[in-house]
Amino acid sequence: MKTVIFLAIVLVSGAIAGTIHGMTNLVMVEPYLDEAIGIENQNLFASGEEEDTPQFWVEYNSYRDWQKGGQVLAGAILGTSVGALFGIVYALSRHALPGKNDLRKTLVLAGIMWLTIYLIPFLKYPANPPTVGDGETVVLRAVLYLSFIAISGFGAVGLYQLYKRLKQNTKVLAFVGYAVFIGIVFALMPPNPDEVTAPMDLVDGFRAMSAVAVSVFWVSVAVVLGSLWHKFRPDSEITLAKNQ
Amino acid sequence: MTFYVILLSYPTEITVSKSKVPIFAIALLAIIFAVGLFVVGYDQGHIFSVVLGEQAYEDLYIHELTHDMRHAAGFPCH
User: Which domain of life does this protein belong to (chain A) (predicted)?
Assistant: First the structure.
């Protein structure tokens, strides 16, 4: 394994995909965030916590610019982070993944990881816009979300171990086993403790655009890593030319 | 675990594909994964508190910087 090349293509692919994710969010998710924060502001004015003054809007616009600008940088950081996990799993499982080339293999793996560590946890604990969520419960919600992701991810690793050990005509049992396992976990994990008080069309629209943007990330990281792996072949060390 | 694949590319080339993944590389990527996830998903002033002390929990620089991505990526924010 060419370690430096391996690390470089993994980190670059994650950063590129994360930047694409951040830019997608700016276009697709940001309007919902602005609308939700607008509701938060109206609630602050109504409760008397803030006053609707020019000074308020100067400060508001200042930190909203910081937050919006941070979207792309945070996307690059998160993308590099998740891309690092993707690279680890790909390097360890590449030989077992179906597909004739690296691009197909990375797309298959991205599909599996998107399903197990994003979509299934999302269905249990969907994303929420600002205005939804009590600050008092944020630690509990963070623990629940991360726990479900970890349980589902390790469940998928268990599925793979079982899949390897089963005979060809019984391999479907591994998928059934994962489905039963994650179904039980899904039912047993506590629900999000916070009530959704924001308009549901706003919440539903936000969740849909959020899911699309995260899915764009997973497709992007698969395409970039698969292409870079194919081009640089970090797993290929020795090529000997033989005279005829 | 080491996997060796020997491809005989008839008639002039032998390519040996060795796909052992160094533990060092795995460990480094795992650290990057954990740190990046914490920064974007969970920091509430913890990182800057190393240099700014308690004030960092009021300023929430990283929280504000990652605020929109935190919501959009599904992390609980506030």
Answer: Archaea
Are B35 and A30 in contact (CB < 8 Å)?
Answer: no
Contact of B57 with chain A, judged by CB distance below 8 Å, is answered with no
The total domain count for chain A is 1
Find chain A residues with C-beta within 8 A of B47's C-beta.
Answer: none
The string of pLDDT tens digits covering residues A58-93 is 999 988 988 898 999 999 999 999 999 999 999 999
Residue A182 lies in a domain: no
Instruction: Write out chain A residues lying below 8 Å of B21, CB-based.
Output: 1, 6, 88, 91-92
Are B72 and A87 within 8 A, CB to CB?
no
8-state DSSP, A130: T
* pLDDT tens, position by position, A171-197: 899 999 999 999 999 999 999 988 888
The SS3 assignment for A237 reads strand
Residue B24, both tokens:
């060092």
DSSP labels, B2-68: --EEEEEETTTEEEEEE-PPPHHHHHHHHHHHHHHHHHHHT-SSTTTHHHHTTHHHHH-HHHHHHHH
What ipTM was assigned to the predicted interfaces of this complex? 0.91
Indicate yes or no: CB of B13 within 8 angstroms of CB of A33. no
Q: How far apart are CA A14 and CA A110, in angstroms?
A: 12
Give the pair of three-digit tokens for residue A57.
Answer: 């809007």
Inter-chain residue contact A238 with B76, CB threshold 8 Å: no
- The first and second tokens of residue B18, run together, are 């060795």
Chain B partners within 8 Å of A213 (Cβ): 72
Q: What is the pLDDT of residues A99-121, one digit of tens each?
A: 999 999 999 999 999 999 999 99
